[in-house]
Design brief:
By secondary structure, this protein is mainly alpha-helical. The chain folds into two domains: 33 residues, no CATH class; 101 residues, no CATH class. The chain is 63% helix and 0% strand. The longest helix has 18 residues.
């Protein structure tokens, strides 16, 4: 039964005409196949989940307390690529949609903290200190880019991929 459900959901993913359709089928596939238990569980041999859980709880506590200086300090100590192994390839190939819930929550919390520090809410921290954090973060993580290759044979695939991204996040 699991096999037929996952096979049907895989077919739904292949036939999806929008990102939302594909996402719903991918999440359904993860639930039907049992992968969602892996997603929901912190534990993994591929990254230091205990450290990420501590970092996440600390950032949440500091943001809730509106401790801008504490948030800045916490981000400063952890602003480097592949923190605690979160970038390991094995974490991004098991589920059809996403990865460990802990990783997603941590990235979302860091994003919220960075947005807070970039706003007027953090005016109690000198601008040069905040800019220094953002410069170092840019140095560690670089800039996002999209590169497509494969010459003319993949042109229509590339157009479809760009269209799907555009429809998901219009300018």
């Amino acid at each position: 039964m699991i096999f037929s459900a996952t096979k049907r959901l895989q077919a739904d993913m292949d036939a999806a005409e929008s990102y939302e359709e594909w996402k719903a089928a991918a999440i359904g596939h993860d639930k039907a196949s049992g992968v969602m238990r892996w997603v929901e569980s912190d534990e993994s041999k591929h990254f230091d989940y205990a450290s990420i859980r501590r970092r996440l709880e600390r950032l949440r506590k500091l943001r809730k307390a509106k401790d801008n200086a504490g948030v800045l300090f916490a981000l400063n100590e952890g602003i480097h690529g592949n923190i605690d192994g979160m970038g390991r390839r094995a974490l991004y190939g098991k589920a059809k949609f996403g990865t460990k819930k802990l990783i997603t929550e941590y990235v979302d919390e860091v994003t919220s903290a960075l947005e807070m520090l970039a706003s007027d809410v953090a005016a109690d921290i000198p601008l040069d200190e905040r800019l220094d954090l953002f410069r170092r973060a840019h140095h560690c993580y670089g800039s996002s880019a999209l590169m497509m290759s494969g010459a003319g044979s993949l042109l229509f695939f590339h157009i479809g991929a760009v269209k799907a991204m555009w429809l998901e996040h219009p300018a």
